[in-house]
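Hi everyone,

Forwarding the result from last night's run.
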Amino acid sequence: MAMKLSTKKRPERADKMLKEHQLKFSERVFDNITIQTLKELMYKGVFSSLDFPIQHGKEAAVYRGTKSVEGRPVEYVAVKIFKFEGPSFQRRTQYLEGDKRFSVPGNKRGLVRIFAKKEYANLKLCQEAGMRTPKPIKHKDNVVVMEFLGEDGVPGELLKDGEMEKPKETLHLILEDMRRMHNAKLVHVDLSEFNIIWLGGMPWIIDVGQAVLTHHPDAEAFLHNDVFNILKYFGKHGVAVEGEKALKYIRGEAKDYL
């Protein structure tokens, strides 16, 4: 059975997103195994339909899903599909090093499944740490269903596209969450304005599938890179913070970074 995107309840911005749908098929997001997984999740009531793509990359695509329950308000979820037919995840095995939660399989499909599982597990840790990240809802095979970050069905914008009235306060919120993440023994690895959602005047960190444990041999280097990327972006918005002070704050070695 071919998956079909619903055009119901889509916001105006979805028109452009829907035009990209054929590209998603050409990239083989919806192979037979993925379609079966989506059907099973729909059968279990995790969501009722896939509406339109929110975000897509080489390794995964995110769709808005609608959860319709008779007599109740419509709910939305984000459905992240890790691509079996995308680029090889083999080069990403470095992010599994020393992580006893997962074993490294010897085939491509196995690796895709592991990274979907890892995203779900990391989201749970982030939630337990009190971070602003999407709440994980369900994981199956190469699909992760999570909280939809948006208003009235309209996805939130990336930080790079949103308007910050108070960049200094926004940076503080991000550094707080980086500190919480470090307390949860995780380092994001790829944090930047491209994977932070701007919603309700607050920054929400996303894409935690590659996040590594703090005892990973390269965790400190990854943390330095995350801090550099964030401070460089906010430096362009007139907020200057010393990198070493920010690092000490995130590690819990200082009460502030000022």
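The longest helix spans residues 108-128.

Cheers,
N.
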